[in-house]
Amino acid sequence: MQKDELNFNMEPPYPENNVYPPTWNFDNEKAWQLYRRAKREQWDEESINWAKVKEWASGLDRKQRLAIAYWWSLLSNFDNATPVFAYAVIKSFEYHLDTAVRGILTTITFDENRHNMACGLSISNMLQGFPLNFTPKDDLERKAKLNAEWVWWNGSRYWKAYLEAYRKYTFDVLFTSFMMGEAAATTVFTTMSKGAKMEEFSKLFKNTAVDETRHYAFTHLIISQEAQKMSEEKKKLVTKQVRAGFVFLSLITYKPPKDFWKLPPWFIETHEKMENIARDAGFYIPTEEEKENAWRDAIMRVGSSLYRYGIEMPSIPELGISGEEIKDLKEEDFIPIF
User: What DSSP state is assigned to residue 27?
Assistant: First the structure.
């Protein structure tokens, strides 16, 4: 609009989906409570004694260090979420969401950056340069390197899908879709913090579990405030996305999935070998039974929340959980769950 077309006697016509004008509201008390909690619970990844981690790693053989670095590299696929939430922060300002909700998203962005740093520091102190600058010495090492890189390649697919998701879904659907992942992560990291023999990793997992518990509380806040306004179509979308969350996150928190992911034919065999080597080294990874229990706990928590708002839980046949059967889950339906 040209200057001579502007009527300065009227209030200005702001463009749609713009971060201007600045807006504030202070009446969403539940959101404000969560925002204050997020500020209180911040921690520093550099408070972990990485020198102790490196010293512990020096007592392990090459394959053991590789296996632990491998596990962290797979986790990093999901903890590479700083830009995910940074983008959500931008969108929350464009859509002029509640002030406290925008603040919470800002804290989650910082949390995810910390988690990502922790993955990088763990890998660096185990086997610096893995996987991109790692030279395998045998077939197992070659396959482990390729496993990690192909998981990351899948992550690149989901980044594109995430950007597109904002054109297809509203904020409430997007963030209630994260419920299953956050609930499962809370249980898995709590289990790992209790089982870790290495004290610094125990601290790291405990702190991460605190963050994930708060992130789950955020998804619960969103659904509690938005579900009553959701149409039946939106509720069905949430059911579908909860199922998608299980499929997506089961790569690291349960059994590597048989569907959806595009992975090497040797992925599962190599992945299981790496996990077993890491366990033998003293790096605690939950057993299959513990992983199943973590997911069942997550499903019960999420299911209870969804039921309260008239949203169906999806069927999870892998765990013997009945519910709404999802037959038409296509790749384009997935919202990346981080």
Answer: -
Q: Measured between alpha carbons, how far is residue 3 from residues 10, 14, 97, 303 in Å?
A: 14, 14, 30, 55
CA gap 111, 179 in Å, rounded:
17
Higher pLDDT, 173 or 16: 16
What is the pTM for the complete model shown?
A: 0.92
DSSP class of 97: -
Amino acid (1-letter code) at residue 183: A
Residue in this structure with the two tokens 């009446």, named with its chain if needed? 27
CA distances 268 to 129, 265, 275, Å, are 23, 8, 10
Q: What is the phi/psi pair of residue 316, to 5°?
A: -120, 80
Fill in the DSSP letter of residue 26: -
More confident residue, 275 or 3: 275
In order, the DSSP letters of 53-67 are HHHHHHTS-HHHHHH
Exposure of 260 by Cβ count < 10 A (0-12 exposed, 13-18 middle, 19+ buried)?
A: middle
- In order of their start, the domains of the chain are 49-333 (1.20.1260)
pLDDT in tens, 245-293: 787 778 888 877 666 789 999 999 999 999 999 999 999 999 888 888 8
How far apart CA 234 and CA 170 sit, in angstroms, is 9
